[in-house]
Amino acid sequence: MNKTTSHSPPFALPMRYITLGVVLFGLFALQLLAESLFHPFQMALMPSVVALTHLLTLGVLLSIVTGAVYQLTTVTFLIPIRNVGLAGKNFWIYGMGIVGLWISMEQWWTVGLLIFGTIVTISIYIFGILVMLSLSKSTVKGMIRWYIWFSMMYLLLAVAFAWTMIASIQFGIGSRFYMELLETHIVLATIGFFTCLIIGFSLKLFPMFTLAHGFSTARQPYTFGLLQGGLALLIMGIWLHSRILLTIGGVAAVAAFVNHALDLRGMIQKRMRKTMETPIRYVVVATIFGLISFCAVLGIALAHGGLTQWQGIIGFYILGWIVLTVMGYAYKIIPFLIWNQRYGTKAGKEKVPMMSELFDLKKSRWVFGLFVAGLFLFSCGMVLGWYGLTMAGGSLLTIGIGLFVWQMLQILKPSQLWKEIYSND
Ligand code: HEM
Fold first, then answer.
1. 162 CA → ligand 1 middle, Å
2. Which parts of the chain span the membrane according to its record (predicted)?
């Protein structure tokens, strides 16, 4: 991503999604603090917790990821985004849908779940199909393409399962399979979609940001195979109620993470940039957290853990692996997009700030330090049922996220961004 290409989408397209994600991350931090202090996750699947989960996964993560995918797909696969006009309009459908869905989940308003769930479903289908149509025109081959292709497929499936759950809540259809639908939805969305997407783009981004060359790619097809096999076994295990299939699926996922971690290590060893920046170090930490999550899944499955323990592990996986990686890459992608828009054409002709001058990278140590410390306390509190720890962890997480949002807003400069987005429409 060291340059934009002639295929790059208009600046407004990725930036609208990314800005929405950053703003909602601030809102998420506040809701997390309120939940941690006033009812510290004592019951699994409470409406407020489900709303909080989706504020994070849909409002924050999917928004930022959608913006990044629109940008990175053009650079990685050397293709334009299909129907950019529709992609731009889809932002409004998405934004309206997730706000409505979040409020409906918070109030457990089942009609709202159906209306806004349908709107979000349509919007995500538009996104997924546009990316797949764009990808189909690319001649760039390799593992990344498979990862992105499969991640989109899993996203569409995860949302289809979500919509079926909502229909089941409203009309009672298939309600006896509700738990299977829910578990499949979680596995497809968190492991299928987010994990495939992150590992896929990491194969491009990690060497780019560490300036790694000449590392081995031999393990990559095995990582992909193990992840897809593990996922299939987990889903079969859910529907057949087979502990053996679930265990083998979990072991395959652990192996995929070990392989991916070894690949990152290979890239680090072959890097040209001597010092690794803090956000990129935490991308590695996040991979280790992904690995720990699957080991914990196996542990809890064998120990017959309850719903609250499962919720603790899912929370750790989403925050420790998905959110931490997205935060790490955001420190590289967001300043790049802003610098390129504001100073790209002026560079070399007049004095412009360097990208590193847009914000204070050293402060990111505080962001990640507080986030990781908070995550540990929060997850231990959830799994052990020690609510004092959950409260303390939730508070540290909130401060870490608050600092991150503040740094991103410093880079984005909302009042200037507003004009740029609307004059570039
Ligand atoms: C890719 C994004 C998504 C992720 C990662 C995700 C993740 C999750 C998770 C982890 C849960 C378990 C509940 C919890 O831990 O709070 C859940 C439940 C649920 N999700 Fe999603 N979800 C996503 C998208 C959606 C969408 C688009 C919809 C609606 C169309 C939706 C509707 C639901 C519903 C109705 C539940 C069940 C709540 C319950 O029975 O208490 N999800 N989701």
1. 6
2. 58-79, 91-109, 115-135, 147-166, 186-209, 221-238, 244-262, 282-302, 314-339, 366-387, 393-412
pLDDT < 70: residue spans in the chain: 1-6, 40-44, 424-425
Length of the chain: 425
Say which amino acid occupies 12.
Answer: A
CB 182 near ligand 1, within 6 Å: yes
Q: Amino acid letter at 269?
A: Q
Q: Tens of pLDDT along 83-97?
A: 999 999 999 999 999
Best of 28, 43, 57, 101 for a ligand 1 pocket test (most atoms within 8 Å of beta carbon) = 57
Query: What is the DSSP track for 105-135?
Result: HHHT-HHHHHHHHHHHHHHHHHHHHHHHHHH
Residue 137 CB-density burial (10 A; 0-12 exposed, 13-18 middle, 19+ buried): exposed
Task: Verify whether ligand 1 is closer than 6 Å to residue 184 (CB atom).
Answer: no
Contact 81, 14 (CB under 8 A): no
Task: Note the pTM of the prediction, 2 decimals.
Answer: 0.94
Ligand 1 neighbourhood includes 321 CB (under 6 angstroms)? no
DSSP annotation of 361: G
**Domains, in order of start, for the chain:** 12-341+354-423 (1.20.210.10)
Q: Which run of H or of E encompasses 347? A: none
